[in-house]
Structure formats: C-alpha cells, structure tokens
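In response to the reviewer comment on reproducibility (Comment 2.3), we provide here a single inverse folding case reported in full, input and output, so that an independent group could reproduce the run without further information from us. The structure tokens appear first.
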C-alpha cells in the first residue's frame, strides 16, 4: 500500500498512473516492482485496470486541517468554530454571549465617560475647579480635602512633598459644602466602577474564547471516537489474471478528509 498526502495528491497520483501505464502498455517488465509483490514477476504486464478512483468522505468528516481551522476560528470569534463544524446551536450560544459582552463593554465605557463629564462639571460648579489639563490624580485629590490649602497642609504633615500643589492658581479648589464634596466622591467612584465593569467584560471575552475553543476540541474528539475523522489517502493494487483482459492490475485509490 502506498500512502499519499493531501497537497501533492494530484501530482503523485499522476506520477503513479504514468509509471503503471508505461509498464503495462509499453511492454515493460515488472522487475521495477521488485519487493512489492512476488506475483508481479511471474508474467509480463499487458494491461492496467483502474478499478475505482474517487474522493470518499462522509458529510461529518473532520480532517486535521479542518480541526485546526475550527480551533483558530473559535479563538478569533467564539462560536465560529462550532458553526464551521456544523454545530449551529452551540455556535449561537457562544456568538450570542460574545455580542452581549461587546455590548456590555461598549456600554460600560460610554456610561463611564458620561459620569466622568458629570463629576468634572460638578466640581467646576461647586469647587471652582478648572478641568482643563488635569490628570487623574488631581481628580482624586480634590475629593480628599475641602480646599487646596487643607490638602497641602496634610501632605506636609505626612512629609509627602511630592504631592504638594505649588501652583495654587492653576490647581485651586474650594468646595462650597461638605455634602457636595461627598456627592462628588460618589460620582467619581461610580465612574470608576463602570470602567472596572468594562475591564470585566474584556475578561469575559477571553473566557468565552477559551470555552468555545474547549468545546471545539470536545467536538473533534467526539468525532474521532465515532470514526468520523478522515484518514490519509491510500492507494492499493492487486494483480490477477483475467480470462478476457489477461494480466491485469487493479488500482484502488481512496482519500478521505
């Protein structure tokens, strides 16, 4: 038996047929087939019969290349690998989860941006803050003290000189009431919570891809156990004497995917 592999199947098949045809129709002797079968050397070959030639596979056959593509698809888009393998119900579940996670991610970011504008506007109205050019640390600091002077004094007591604001005019703030400062802190923490939710959505997307890939692997293993995984291409030949055709070789070529 001679095994042929996927890509070069057509070329190798043509070479095999050409050699057999030259031997049979050109009156060649079978010594070139030494070791293949003892019966080949008994008679000169005068005819080759191609008994069957075809591509055989079941609709559910899952080859190695197909399995690799399915795994890659699930890593890129959860559920795409299941869809590719024909498991549409599972594919819809993973795809639906992916769409929901993306909607949650984009929605969380959008709402977090709204809350950020809200607390910055709130601080400008009730603490006299100029929001232009301020970093994230500044928005945290203005919620920790009623005004910039109290904040600087606390940092000096802690000997944290790097945290002291030396440019009072640019970074000035003075809350008009304690309740408004607390309200500002609540808004900022709420905005931070929604940004953290968006981060969780990213983690959910990663987990969804892992679960989808594991499901594809499960499907592939199940198909292998049920004998649905395609094997390699095979060529088998048989020499026999036909009462009408004379010495004959049957060549049976099959390949599965």
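Designed residues, in position order:
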């Amino acid at each position: 038996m001679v095994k042929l592999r996927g890509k070069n199947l057509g070329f190798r098949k043509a070479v095999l047929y050409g050699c057999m045809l030259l031997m049979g129709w050109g009156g060649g002797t079978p010594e070139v087939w030494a070791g293949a079968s003892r019966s080949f050397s008994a008679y000169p070959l005068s005819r080759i019969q191609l008994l069957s030639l075809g591509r055989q596979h079941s609709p559910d056959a899952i080859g190695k290349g197909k399995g690799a593509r399915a795994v890659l698809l699930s890593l890129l888009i959860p559920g795409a690998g299941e869809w590719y393998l024909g498991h549409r119900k599972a594919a819809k579940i993973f795809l639906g989860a992916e769409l929901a996670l993306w909607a949650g991610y984009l929605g969380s970011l959008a709402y977090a941006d709204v809350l950020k504008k809200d607390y910055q506007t709130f601080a400008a109205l009730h603490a006299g803050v100029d929001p232009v050019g301020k970093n994230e640390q500044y928005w945290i600091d203005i919620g920790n003290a009623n005004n910039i002077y109290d904040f600087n004094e606390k940092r000096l007591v802690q000997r944290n000189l790097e945290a002291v604001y030396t440019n009072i005019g640019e970074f000035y703030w003075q809350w008009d009431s304690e309740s408004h400062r607390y309200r500002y802190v609540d808004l900022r923490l709420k905005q931070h919570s929604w940004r953290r939710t968006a981060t969780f959505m990213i983690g959910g997307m990663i987990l969804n891809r892992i679960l989808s890939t594991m499901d594809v692997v499960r499907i592939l293993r199940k198909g292998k156990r049920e004998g649905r995984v395609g094997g390699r291409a095979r060529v088998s030949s048989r020499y026999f004497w036909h009462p009408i055709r004379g010495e004959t070789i049957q060549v049976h070529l099959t390949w599965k995917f």
